[in-house]
Amino acid sequence: MLGEYRIEGRRASEIAASVERAVGAGELQPGQALPPLRELAAHLEVNPNTVAAAYRTLRERGVIETAGRRGSRVRPRPASTSREALNVQVPPGVRDVSSGNPDPALLPALGPALAEAAGRGARRPVLYGEAAVGEELAHLARSAFDADGVPDGPVAVTSGSLDAMERVLSAHLRPGDGVAVEDPGWGSLLDLIAALALRPVPVGVDDEGPVPEEVDRALRAGARALVVTDRAQNPTGAVLSAVRAAELRALLSGHPDLLLIEDDHGHGIVDHPLHPLAGVTERWVLTRSTAKAYGPDLRLAALTGDAATVDKLQGRQRLGPGWVSHLLQDTVAHLWRTGAVDVTAVAGSYDRRRNALMRALADRGVAARGRSGMNVWVSVPDETGAVARLLHRGWAVAPGARFRLRSPQGIRITVSALTDDQLPPLADAVAAALGPGEPRRYD
Predict the structure, then answer these.
(1) Residues 6 or more apart in contact with residue 70 via CB below 8 angstroms
(2) Distance from C-alpha of 416 to C-alpha of 413, rounded to nearest angstrom
(3) How many other C-beta atoms are found inside a 10 Å radius of the C-beta of residue 171?
(4) What integer pLDDT is reported at residue 442 of this predicted model?
(5) What is the pLDDT of residues 236-249, one digit of tens each?
(6) What would the 3-class secondary structure string for 380-416 be?
(7) Whole-angstrom Cα distance, residue 301 to residue 298?
(8) Helix (H, G, I), strand (E, B) or coil at 283
(9) 343-363 and 423-434 helices, crossing angle to 10°
(10) How confident is the model at residue 79, as a pLDDT?
């Protein structure tokens, strides 16, 4: 049964552990079918309900998935396997344009903000039982949301956007529920969905955001949640336009029970206006991470949403970390209050490098995408070969498999560390890595 591997056990926990061990050891491969429930029960001489319970446990752990009459299979990407494992190793002397990190030169100095936060903490230490969100940070966050047309709602603070998404998805969904996600999209979110035993439903993305027909198809397929990146979409740089936002709001108005999550991680590094979808469904959140504009190590995101969802998030947060450090909250409040980041200058710096790289690629017959943010996405016919050839030429790029579900192959290039003199040789290397022939467009 299942080739040379034999599933063992008499109890549901033993059967589930046997399968999970085999998946972890590579004896059961991603996509491999498991025996039909009754067949395995007969083989193990146990009640079919015992096998059903074992399979249910495996689904909840994200080890297997069940697709109706097609039966149960090992997940294509087991939840224990992070897409970060698809990173390339950067040998000495190779220039790394794969990381997705911001340009350190564009991050604000944290010393004055940290000093002020420390002084405030010394004068009045935060103790148990106090409000989870600092008054100043809540006021500044809510004012910024108001200025961008985000509907009224309470403000919460989490340890980054992914932390917020995990708490919201866990509060509203159950294992096996479908989540409509951008494809290609943020690899960490795809990992999170697998870890929560949820089912990703891919939605195509163009330069204006999620394609309405793709969203409609995902909702008709039973997706109970939708995650949208408003600006600086990772990895394509898409920006949700006013026209596209109106189309999506009209579509989503027919699905009031849908959970809508908006990720505005581009806040502070993009000067395109925000066109939020928030409020068109009954359950929604919009989150803003400080990572790209102020530094990844701050580990803080401010969010707002409908009262019930924010209450559930904070209730679950109280049972874990309790709150995000007020030292960090006060630090971010200082940065916001003093205008520590010049959004126009930061956005302009990324725009200049991103656009220059795309022009250089276009001059060499290579089409690329990158409307905003710090990344450029290049569709390729063979991303494994392209990554290897670029590495040989001295450039480490991110393989598209980190971001894709069903969309065509590609590579992601982060422009943050690039200087003007590096753009032509990088474009030359990409063109050479894709091989001869024009036009080199593989969308």
Answers:
(1) none
(2) 9
(3) 17
(4) 35
(5) 999 999 999 999 99
(6) CCCHHHHHHHHHHCCEECEEHHHCCCCCCCEEEEECC
(7) 9
(8) strand
(9) 40
(10) 55
